[in-house]
Every structure is written in structure tokens, then in C-alpha cells.
Amino acid sequence: MLHMHPLPSIVDFTQLLGAICKNEYYSVVITLIRDMGSFGITPNVYTLNVLINCYCHLNGVALGFSVLATILKLGYQPTQSTLNTLLKGLCLQGNISAAVRLVEEMENKGYQPNVITCGTIVNGLCKIGKTGAAIRLLRKIDNGKFEPDVVLYSTFIDSLCKDRLVTEALNLLSEMISKGIQSNHVTYTC
Questions:
Q1: What is the pTM of this model?
Q2: CA 111 to CA 97: how far, in whole Å?
Q3: What span, in angstroms and rounded, lies between the C-alpha atoms of 43 and 112?
Q4: How distant is the alpha carbon of residue 42 from its chain centre?
Q5: What is the 3-state secondary structure (H, E, C) of 100-149?
Q6: Which of 18, 38, 153, 159 has the smallest CB count inside 10 Å?
Q7: What is the pLDDT of residue 103?
Q8: CA 45 – CA 181 distance, rounded (Å)
């Protein structure tokens, strides 16, 4: 693609990079984004989000934050996806306290946590055995601006079952169903 004349648009590049990233070829994406610069192609915020995602999956969340600095330096506004990706990177490293601080900073700057933001934190808390703290967050979410979805409930149910708290998991499943949230095969597999 880099040798085509005229060069494809940044949207085309970003779509290609996203597909390569989904196939977990993170280092290839990083190299291609660096090569784009040598061809005079300026990445947009979505391209840089893909780059952040790659760094986070390669355990380089610090490099992801440096890309966030680049986003700001270029005059772009970070998207909800930018921040959720960094949040996921922190959780993948087990740095839940930094993830919670990031959410607080997001809120202070006007970003509203969404179900993905909360699901990422919940998943991180559950993975480190803090299911009680995750459930307290669920109760807070219930009183918030959005409703938990089947993915969020399934994360809780899975964690409770792994903690051998099957009765609590069944109660949560019952609560989910009473709210009209349709369970799926993942929920029942848990």
C-alpha cells in the first residue's frame, strides 16, 4: 500500500492496521505506522488508537501513554476509545489503582465512563480476586447513567463461580433476567 500512487487515504491505512491488529500482529502494526511517517502520511487519532492498543497488548502501556501525548501534541482530542484502551492496558498489567485514577481523571476532564469503561475495571478487579469491590462498582453503575449489559453481568457471574460463590452467581443471574437483560451462551458457560 505504501508504494501505491497516489497513496491510499489515512482511513484506508487505519482500516488495514486495525485488521492486522485484530490478528494480533502488534509489532507489524507498530512498524507500519512508523513507515507511514517516512512517506509523509500523518496518522489521525484513530490510527494512533490502534497504535496504543498494540503497545498495551505488548505490555507497553507506558508507550501507549506517550502516544496519548502525541495525540494531544497534534491537536487531536482523545476519544473514549483512546482512554478505554489505555485503561485496558493498565488492567492487563494488573495496575488497577492506576486504572481507577485514570477513570477519575477522565471524569474530571469531562469524559463520561461508559459500559466499556466500567466493564474493563470490573474485569480487572475480578481477575485480581476483588470480586466484592467489583460488585460494589456494579451497584454504583446501576444508579448511574447507563445500564450494565450481558457482558458485564457475565464477567461477575464468572468471577463469582471461580470464587466458588455459586449461590451469589445464581442470584446475580436472576437479577439480570429480572431486569430484562437476555443471557447468552457465555453467561451459562460461566
A1: 0.80
A2: 19
A3: 26
A4: 24
A5: HHHHHHHHHCCCCCCHHHHHHHHHHHHHCCCHHHHHHHHHHHHCCCCCCC
A6: 38
A7: 86
A8: 34
CATH of domain 115-190: 1.25.40.10
Domain ranges of the chain: 1-112, 115-190
Between CA 148 and CA 101 the distance in angstroms is: 21
Q: For residue 163, what pLDDT is reported? A: 80
Which amino acid, residue 105?
E
* pLDDT over 70, % of the chain: 94
Q: Which residues contact 107 (CB under 8 A, 6 or more apart)?
A: 113
Place of cell 497488548: 57
Structure confidence at residue 4 (pLDDT): 63
Any alpha helices (H) in the chain, and if so which ranges? 10-22, 26-38, 45-57, 61-73, 80-92, 96-108, 115-127, 131-142, 150-162, 166-178, 185-189
Placement of cell 460463590 in the chain:
165
C-alpha cell at 157: 457471574
Report how far apart the first and last C-alpha atoms of the chain are (Å, whole number): 43
List the grid coordinates of 26: 502488534
Rounded Cα distance between 122 and 152, Å, is 8
Amino acid at 134: A
